[in-house]
Write a structure and sequence with these properties.
single chain, 413 residues, alpha+beta, L-amino peptidase D-ALA esterase/amidase, Ubiquitin-like (UB roll), ten-stranded mixed sheet
Length: 413
């Protein structure tokens, strides 16, 4: 497999996938939940009980599959599989929806010969409609034959979790721990209803590292705070957001904890996997034409930096200006000012790419043509230095386009 050096700590495995870590296989198929013939049911399966961890949406209307997954991971902190459907969120579906989600868990567990409590469930799609369980049952019965440890199996799974996504999102890295090569891989879906504190996204991370569920939960939550919780497309938080990590432990390293000498290396690689997936979701925002990155520096605290970054990246006016390739720094500074965080109104610098537009809170003449050319690119970086402290944060989003309205005006139809 081709490898690209990403940092001193790890390398990116160019042809890697969620099945690259030892012990994992995956697959997907079309069972009939989607109107098209695209895959709509998939699974990841581990050959041994894997240490498991999860983070979930903060929306109070949590979908039925989230309750099932929380129950599964909470039982022993172990998983053997996660089964996912797209085309139907199974959210706001009452007791019947909950019963259907538990049936998905028990039926798939029976088909692959594992305890029901070792299976997680995830769903994505339209809210408020009951699952067509006759189709789901048939799909579950056929799914084990589609499971494969190859890239083909991983691709089948990645196809099965998509909704309005235009592209599959996956990444894999290799890191040396205790003289052993450990792989960390991820796959995700997400395009609309994306906002920090999780989004309408499903994310799955596999690794063959030996690590306990408690330590895995800690590194997952820390990585989520720095990545998935720093993206936004439209300011809406979904009912189904879920990020699940599974560790097979088959790489043969000594168990990773915060006291392990290579812990920082592992955590850095894990965060990188989450960051790549988070940025891919932001770039693939519904109707988006570009990825927008907001960097906040010189804040009084990390919490303040994150709040300001989220406010700027989530501003509809900033997002509209990015779509129009308009270097309207006034919209950026207005978002900074309404973030609710401490700001010295006399010391703020703003740069769009390499172009300075504001220094010490005073306008700087700049080349409008150069700014226009930069903003027409597919990636835009907005840099804000508050000159108040040492803390910083980065948030990612996309521009707001006509197509976003078109897509969401007819989502159910």
């Amino acid at each position: 497999m081709g490898q690209v050096k990403a940092s001193e700590a790890f390398t990116v495995v160019a042809e890697g996938s969620i099945t690259t870590p030892k012990g994992f296989k995956a697959g997907g198929l079309h069972c009939g939940l989607k109107k098209t013939d695209r895959h709509d049911l998939g699974a990841i399966v581990c050959e041994v009980p894997a240490a498991a961890a999860g983070v979930y949406t903060l929306n109070q209307f949590q979908a039925a599959p989230i309750k099932v997954t929380q129950d599964s991971i909470g039982t022993e902190g172990k998983l053997r599989a996660v089964i996912v459907n797209s085309g139907n969120a199974n959210a706001v579906t009452g007791k019947q929806g909950e019963a259907d989600a538990f049936e998905m868990r028990s039926r798939f567990a029976e088909r692959i010969g594992v305890p029901a409590a070792h299976v997680a469930v995830a769903s994505t799609g339209v809210i408020g409609e009951l699952l067509k369980m006759d189709k789901v049952r048939g799909g579950i019965d056929a799914l084990p034959e589609k499971l494969d440890g190859s890239r083909e199996g991983a691709d089948g799974f990645c196809q099965a979790i998509l909704t309005t996504d235009l592209v599959q999102k996956s990444v894999c890295v290799a890191v040396e721990i205790d003289g052993r090569t450990i792989h960390i891989a991820g796959a995700a879906k997400g395009s609309g209803m994306i906002h920090p504190n999780m989004a309408t996204m499903l994310g799955f991370v596999t690794t063959d590292a030996a690590i306990g569920s408690e330590a895995l939960q800690g590194v997952l939550r820390q990585a989520t705070d720095m990545t998935f919780n720093m993206i936004t497309v439209d300011g809406d938080t979904s009912t189904n957001d879920m990020l699940v990590a599974m560790a097979s432990g088959l790489a043969g390293n000594k168990e990773l904890t915060a006291a392990h000498p290579d812990w920082a290396k592992f955590a850095d690689a894990f965060r990188y996997v989450c960051e790549v997936l988070a940025k891919a979701i932001a770039r693939d925002g519904e109707g988006a034409t570009k990825l927008v990155e907001v960097r906040i520096r010189g804040a009084e605290s990390v919490e303040a930096a994150r709040a300001i970054a989220k406010t700027v990246i989530g501003s509809s006016l900033v997002k509209s200006a990015m779509f129009g390739a308009d270097a309207n720094w006034g919209r950026i500074i207005a978002a900074v000012g309404r973030s609710g965080q401490p700001v010295n109104v006399d010391t703020v610098d703003v740069r769009i790419g390499d172009i300075a537009t504001l220094e010490q809170s005073r306008p700087v003449p700049f080349d409008e043509d150069a700014a226009l050319a930069y903003l027409k690119g597919d990636t835009v970086v907005i840099d804000v230095d508050l000159h108040m402290g040492e803390s910083e944060a980065v948030a990612w989003g996309c521009d707001l386009t006509y197509d976003y309205v078109r897509i969401n005006a007819a989502y159910r139809t």
